[in-house]
Amino acid sequence: MRFRWLAVLVLTAAAWTPAPAGAQFFGPPRAQGPWCAVYTEGMGGTRWDCTYPTLESCVPTILAGTRGFCNPNPRWPGPEPRRHRRKH
What we know:
alpha+beta; about 30% helix
């Protein structure tokens, strides 16, 4: 009986411990693209929204009043290399 209460207490404490900042997300992860809209949030925070496939699709977000800039995504691995097909 004591073991059950101890297990419940440990599991409850583990569920309420804060996660590291990189591990917190709300909702499904967003797709990554080669372009990011970078803009500041209050109190000096910076937000990187890297969901844009082209520079032209990023610019309207910046022009809509976020006062930021578009930047290439530093985590974008690039397109997969094309495999050459041999002729038989």
